[in-house]
Specification:
Number of strands: 7
Structural class: alpha/beta
Order of helices and strands: HHEEHHEEHEHHEHE
Distance between the termini: 30 Å
Strand content: 15-25%
Strand order of the largest sheet: 3-2-1-4-5-7-6
Amino acid sequence: MSCIPHPTDRADMSPVRLGWWRRRVNPMILDRIMDTDEAHLIRERVCAPLAGDVLEIGFGSGLNLPHLPSAVERVYAVDPLDRSWELAAGRIATCGVPVERLGREARTLPLRDRSVDSVLCTWNLCSIDDAHLAVAEIARVLRPGGELHFVEHGRSDEVGVRRWQHRIDPVWSRVACGCHLDRDIRSAIEAGGMHLIELATYYTESEPRILGWTFEGRAAPP
């Protein structure tokens, strides 16, 4: 699976360097390659428990919207790219749930403490610089009893696969607009101050192993 690119406040990732490809072309590519039967089955599982006011980190082109259960009352969308928001317009218009674009940056959310019921994050933490800071923000805005529902790709538990992920990642992260093959998703979630309630790991069927090692589960603040 691929992921949603996120901006950063570091000088080497200025808006100039984001460039036309990352801002305009990459969102269209992601809209296509993430719109697969396997991805939709996974989205269906991850979205099924959502309810109330939902914050989605890395909203992208709205591919999760068709899978939202009727218990969801509102979606707050965070995504850095205007082109992704444009591509989402049709799905937003037909989803039946109010969707508000809240901001661009996952590490500084413009929300009050304990203000959302659930957070959704699909194939996104791999591309956020200092992902643990984004997780800490998620923990801050969740209401008591709220959970992060996620699916991510990242560092494999298999030594041979992990070795190739490390070798390829420097090139891959540049080509794939900040996506990292070897990010330790467990550690990012726990370093952000959340604990894992449920976690399944597996290889997706449609991706090469270096890209398809998947973390699917739920996490909550202490």
